[in-house]
């Protein structure tokens, strides 16, 4: 393609002979009325071009053995018509040159119905494509042909990545550091996102073998078959849009990997839709943040096992390594199970973060300790059984100052969230699993969002706490340890129920293993769960009675202090309530069932009836 006079007919004919396929000149598809217009110096309008472009597209689709077409195709909407339904086997070659060079050529042309005077209007109309092969015409036709054939050689890139945000860039560098030849794509947005992939590649030495694209067709054409494309784009509509665009270019047996935080039901829907086209789909959770993505994340892929086998060498190479040197990446299971466990991972993460925030609140607002002193306490905790990534970053961030002020005293107390906590809460409600600490952590964030209301209420009532008692740090440590155990038990029970309900066949011990490094919730506790979860999802059953009794009393002590001090600590209280409900026989649901039967005749079962029969009572 290109403006009149760029040499597209000459070069196109030469290329067709080189490829041993037919050559078609776009000029030959013009109806006589169009030819008459152009001969009179009248530019064609879009209505004039519609049928002309459609006739070439029809001819292209019929050319099963291939063909070369020469056409001006000055606007993107014209090119869309030309390329409609052509898949990834159609190449666009743009012959580019300056107005001065082409004008000189036009002046020398004879027996052609395009007057040179129309060249300016063509340049004014031209929308330069940001994809395809761009070939300079400031050389002889033979060298132009050589440039084209060199760039159309067999694809050399083995793995593709779409989306160069923070996580995408880190994963790309991780893949490159493991010796993989990459094709990197980032969308084109004039003025804000231009040549993102190319500039990124030029920034890092490890990407020297990578190729950057901002056109999807060229990106796909650069990949070896079966193509493997890793998506790191925003979850939701953006993911659907990119998959739709990709699916028109990919072939049967190619694999798309969605590494975003997609809802597991969307993952299952996308997998089914792509399967109809013969394209394989893997939904994978990726945890570890920017640093983890670069140095080694925890990766949770699921879907078609044959698809996983095609991508396993890449994902397992870049994953973090557990204490035995094995990659923190495993085939999780069928369907959307990979994204499901990533969702629960994030839910556990919510509660772990909230527990630490509550530990800070007790030590700061009840015991009156400075952030620096609290940091020292937490750093000591991190040397033992409580060690975790989140505990580590918490004691580190507590030391940070801006001038003479601690950063934690400057940061506005309004916590954000990206939706996975609410998804986990919705799932636990659907499955009937009481993962109460996750929902408590989520609601704590929601409450924090209403800062204006909280400030107004505090100012109006100005309640004071009198006779405040100091918390024993050892009690707080034990309480925190037990609450964390409850959080993990609830999370894994939710995964176990989902596995059973959706018939995924998940291996909880293996999930714990890939969460021991690379991910946000990695910890010493997670290491112990690998063996524990081989036998039971009830982590409490593996506890020593005396140890549990001591920790439970400490949790009661901390709960009492928090309540009496007016400190919000929903996750510690939720853990205590869960333990009270499970460790003591103080039933309350019998009253609920009686109430339901009283007003709605919903019936109830009896403790003295072994057959499970339902009963109804006339209460008045």
What does it look like?
Belongs to the 6-phosphogluconate dehydrogenase family. This is 6-phosphogluconate dehydrogenase, decarboxylating. Its EC number is 1.1.1.44. It catalyses: D-gluconate + ATP = 6-phospho-D-gluconate + ADP + H(+); 6-phospho-D-gluconate + NADP(+) = D-ribulose 5-phosphate + CO2 + NADPH. GO terms for molecular function: ATP binding; gluconokinase activity; NADP binding; phosphogluconate dehydrogenase (decarboxylating) activity. With 620 residues, this protein is of the alpha/beta class. It has four domains: 8-151, P-loop containing nucleotide triphosphate hydrolases (Rossmann fold), CATH 3.40.50.300; 159-335, NAD(P)-binding Rossmann-like Domain (Rossmann fold); 342-583, N-(1-d-carboxylethyl)-l-norvaline Dehydrogenase, domain 2; 587-620, Single alpha-helices involved in coiled-coils or other helix-helix interfaces (Up-down Bundle), CATH 1.20.5.320. Helix content is 52%, strand content 8%. The chain has helices spanning 8-19, 32-39, 46-62, 76-83, 99-107, 119-125, 141-151, 166-177, 196-203, 216-221, 237-247, 264-275, 289-295, 305-318, 337-366, 371-381, 389-397, 407-410, 420-431, 436-449, 451-461, 473-501, 508-514, 524-532, 545-565, 570-583, 589-600; strands spanning 23-25, 68-70, 93-96, 133-136, 159-162, 182-185, 211-213, 228-231, 255-258, 280-287, 298-303, 401-402, 405-406. Strand 5 (159-162), helix 8 (166-177) and strand 6 (182-185) form a beta-alpha-beta unit. The longest helix is centred in the middle third of the chain and has 30 residues, at 337-366. The protein is elongated and about 100 Å long. It starts with 7 loop residues before the first helix and ends in a 20-residue tail after the last helix. The model has no long low-confidence stretch (mean pLDDT 92).
């Amino acid at each position: 393609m290109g403006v009149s006079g760029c040499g597209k007919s000459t070069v196109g004919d030469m290329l067709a002979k080189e490829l041993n396929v037919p050559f078609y000149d776009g000029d030959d598809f013009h109806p006589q009325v169009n030819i008459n217009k152009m001969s009179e110096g009248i530019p064609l309008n879009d209505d004039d071009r519609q049928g002309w472009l459609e006739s070439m597209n029809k001819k292209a689709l019929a050319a099963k053995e291939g063909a070369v077409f020469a056409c001006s195709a000055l606007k993107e909407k014209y090119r869309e018509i030309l390329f409609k339904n052509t898949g990834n086997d159609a190449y666009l070659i743009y012959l580019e040159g300056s107005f001065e060079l082409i004008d000189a050529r036009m002046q020398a042309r004879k027996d052609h119905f395009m007057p040179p005077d129309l060249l300016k209007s063509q340049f004014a109309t031209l929308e330069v494509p940001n994809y395809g092969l761009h070939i300079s015409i400031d050389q002889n036709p033979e060298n132009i042909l050589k440039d084209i054939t060199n760039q159309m050689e067999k694809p050399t890139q083995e793995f593709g990545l779409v989306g160069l945000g923070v996580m995408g860039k880190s994963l790309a560098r991780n893949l490159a550091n493991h010796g993989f030849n990459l094709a990197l794509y980032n969308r084109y947005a004039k003025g804000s996102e231009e040549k993102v992939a190319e500039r990124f590649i030029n920034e890092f030495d490890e990407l020297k073998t990578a190729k950057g694209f901002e056109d999807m067709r060229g990106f796909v054409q650069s990949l070896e078959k079966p193509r493997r494309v890793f998506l790191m784009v925003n979850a939701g509509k953006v993911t659907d849009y990119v998959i739709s665009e990709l699916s028109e270019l990919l072939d049967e047996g190619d694999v798309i990997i969605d590494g975003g935080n997609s809802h597991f039901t969307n993952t299952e829907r996308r997998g089914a839709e792509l399967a109809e086209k013969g394209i394989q789909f893997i939904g994978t959770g990726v945890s570890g943040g920017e640093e983890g993505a670069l140095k080694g994340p925890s990766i949770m892929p699921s879907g078609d096992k044959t698809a996983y086998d095609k991508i396993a060498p890449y994902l397992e190479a870049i994953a973090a390594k557990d204490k035995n040197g094995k990659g923190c990446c495993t085939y999780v299971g069928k369907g959307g199970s990979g994204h499901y466990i990533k969702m629960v991972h994030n839910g556990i993460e919510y509660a772990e973060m909230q527990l630490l925030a509550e530990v800070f609140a007790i030590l700061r607002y009840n015991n009156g300790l400075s952030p620096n002193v609290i940091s020292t306490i937490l750093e000591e905790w991190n040397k033992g059984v409580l060690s975790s990534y989140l505990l580590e970053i918490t004691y580190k961030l507590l030391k940070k100052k801006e001038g003479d002020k601690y950063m934690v005293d400057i940061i506005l107390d309004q916590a954000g969230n990206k939706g996975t906590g609410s998804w986990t809460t919705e799932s636990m409600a659907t499955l009937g699993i009481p993962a109460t600490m996750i929902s408590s952590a989520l609601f704590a964030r929601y409450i924090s969002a209403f800062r204006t209301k909280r400030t107004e209420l505090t100012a109006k009532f100005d309640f004071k706490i009198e006779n405040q008692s100091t918390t024993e740090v050892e009690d707080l440590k034990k309480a925190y340890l037990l609450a964390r155990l409850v959080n993990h038990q609830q999370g894994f029970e939710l995964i176990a129920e989902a596995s059973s309900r959706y018939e995924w066949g998940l291996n909880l011990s293996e999930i714990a293993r890939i969460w021991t490094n690379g991910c946000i919730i990695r910890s010493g506790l997670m290491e112990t769960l690998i063996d524990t979860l081989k036998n039971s999802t009830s982590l409490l059953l593996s506890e020593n009675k005396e140890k549990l009794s001591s920790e439970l009393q400490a949790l009661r002590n901390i709960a009492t202090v928090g309540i009496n001090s007016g400190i919000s600590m929903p996750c510690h209280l939720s853990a205590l309530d869960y333990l009270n409900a499970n460790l003591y026989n103080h039933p309350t649901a019998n009253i609920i069932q009686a109430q339901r039967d009283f007003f709605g005749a919903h019936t109830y079962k009896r403790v003295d009836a072994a057959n499970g029969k339902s009963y109804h009572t006339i209460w008045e």
